[in-house]
TrEMBL record, chain A:
Entry's transmembrane regions: none
Native organism: Candidatus Nealsonbacteria bacterium CG08_land_8_20_14_0_20_38_20
Cross-referenced SMART domains: PINc
SUPFAM superfamilies on file: PIN domain-like
Domain PIN, chain residue ranges per copy: 2-121
Domain of life of the source: Bacteria
Name listed for the protein in its UniProt record: PIN domain-containing protein
InterPro entries the UniProt entry points to: PIN-like_dom_sf, PIN_dom
Pfam family, one: PIN
TrEMBL record, chain B:
Lineage: Bacteria, Candidatus Nealsoniibacteriota
Domain of life assignment: Bacteria
Organism, scientific name: Candidatus Nealsonbacteria bacterium CG08_land_8_20_14_0_20_38_20
Protein known as: Antitoxin
Length: 141, 81
C-alpha cells in the first residue's frame, strides 16, 4: 500500500471553488479513491488549512473539517519527530511550512502531492513528488 | 489517529473506546506507566473510512466551500511567507 503526504494547497484547492485547479483537484481525489492508499499528514497541514478556512468561513463550519482530517494518519511534532527531522531539514532548502511537509513525506517514505511547484522543485531532490494531475496521469497511464 | 489509554480507563470507558475504534482511532494501552499493547480497527474498516473521507474532498459540503480569487498556492504561500 502506497503512502501519500498531501500538501495544504491541494486541500485548499478542493475547498476554493474559484481556484484554477479546483476541477483537477476533484479528479485527483477521484483517482486516489480508486487505489489502495494511506494518507500521512503533518499536523502543520491541518493547521494551515484550518487557518485559511477560518478566514473564509464561519468557525463552527470550519470545525467540521477537523474530523475529516483525523481519519488519516496525522503526524504530530513531538521530540521524537524533531530528532529525526532536524537532520532531514538540512537536506532541503525550504521554509518551515514547506519543510514540515517534505520531511514528513521523506521520513514516512510517502509520495508528496502539491500544487506548489516551488515546493516540488526542492522536494523532488529527495522525495517522489508530483502535482495532483501528474500523479493521476502516471497512475493510470 | 493514535491515542494512549490506561487499563483502568479502558475498563471504565469501553463503550466509548469501542465507538472510537469503529471510527478508525488506534489506542496504545498503558499498564503501570508502560505501553503493553495496541487496539486498532480491522483493516477493512480503516480502508473504508479513508475512502469515505476522500469523498468529502471530492464533494465538499457547501458550508465548507468558499470563493477566493487568490489561488490555493497563493493562499498557502501567504501562510508560509
Amino acid at each position: 500500500m502506497a503512502s501519500y503526504t498531501i500538501d495544504s494547497s491541494v486541500f485548499i484547492s478542493a475547498f476554493n471553488q474559484q481556484d484554477v485547479f479546483h476541477k483537477q483537484t476533484k479528479e485527483f481525489f477521484d483517482c486516489l479513491g480508486k487505489m489502495d492508499f494511506e494518507i500521512i499528514l503533518p499536523i502543520s497541514v491541518i493547521a494551515e488549512v484550518g487557518n485559511i478556512l477560518i478566514k473564509n468561513r464561519k468557525i463552527k463550519d470550519t470545525l467540521i473539517f477537523l474530523d475529516y482530517f483525523y481519519e488519516f494518519t496525522v503526524i504530530e511534532f513531538n521530540y521524537e519527530f524533531l530528532l529525526s527531522a532536524f537532520p532531514v531539514f538540512r537536506k532541503f532548502k525550504l521554509k518551515t511550512g514547506d519543510i514540515l511537509a517534505a520531511s514528513t513525506a521523506y521520513l514516512y517514505k510517502a509520495v508528496l502531492i502539491s500544487w506548489d511547484k516551488q515546493l516540488l522543485k526542492q522536494s523532488k531532490k529527495l522525495v517522489a513528488s508530483f502535482t495532483p494531475d501528474e500523479f493521476c496521469r502516471q497512475s493510470f497511464s | 489517529m493514535t491515542k494512549t489509554i490506561t487499563v483502568k480507563e479502558l475498563r471504565e470507558n469501553f463503550p466509548l473506546v469501542r465507538k472510537q475504534i469503529k471510527q478508525g482511532v488506534n489506542f496504545i494501552i498503558i499498564y503501570r506507566s508502560r505501553p503493553i499493547g495496541e487496539l486498532s480497527p480491522i483493516k477493512e474498516i480503516k480502508t473504508g473510512l479513508k475512502k469515505k473521507s476522500l469523498d468529502v474532498f471530492l464533494n465538499p459540503p457547501k458550508n465548507i466551500l468558499f470563493k477566493s480569487k487568490n489561488s490555493a498556492i497563493k493562499l498557502v504561500r501567504n501562510e508560509r511567507a
